[in-house]
Design a protein that fits this description.
- The chain contains 5 helices and no strands.
- The mean pLDDT is 92.
- Helices cover 77% and strands 0% of the residues.
- It is mostly helical and 140 residues long.
- The longest helix has 33 residues.
- Helix 1 runs antiparallel to helix 2 and helix 1 crosses helix 5.
Length: 140
């Protein structure tokens, strides 16, 4: 069964657009710091959505193409490990860093957590696009 990847594609595209918007805003000397922080918050929110979509699609693909029981109730680290075994991603440790950044954003909001999550979002876009490309090539 083929997975409908449209929600994943939209989430990754939204993250990429928000990063591009941030870069334009950051280069604009007429914007206030508050304006730039607002756009940065949008990047973080889009990172959260794209990250959630990615791990859910990893799970769905494995359930359909390997075995439903393999990822039922496993930790995120185990999900990423199984995904790497199935060549959906390369770097389990990097995906765990994304997971930790995502967890920071969901528990409390402060500027240090926001900066960490924002930095992760900038790294994540490449990893998410690579994951999507691998998923698309194996989505039959």
């Amino acid at each position: 069964m083929t997975l409908d990847l449209s929600s994943l594609i939209k989430a990754i595209a939204s993250l990429e657009k928000s990063i591009n918007s941030y870069q334009v805003c950051a280069a604009n000397s007429t914007l206030t710091k508050e304006d730039i922080e607002t756009v940065k918050a949008g990047v973080i929110q889009n990172f959260e959505v794209a990250y959630e979509q990615c791990w859910k699609f990893m799970k769905r693909w494995i359930e359909q193409n390997v075995s439903a029981g393999v990822v039922d109730g496993v930790t995120r680290r185990e999900l990423f490990r199984v995904s790497a075994e199935n060549r959906l991603l390369d770097d389990v440790a990097l995906w765990m860093e994304f997971h930790q950044s995502r967890n920071l954003t969901s528990h409390t909001y402060d500027s240090n957590n926001a900066d960490h999550a924002f930095g992760s979002a900038l790294l994540f876009i490449g990893a998410a696009k690579e994951f999507l490309a691998r998923l698309e090539s194996r989505n039959d």
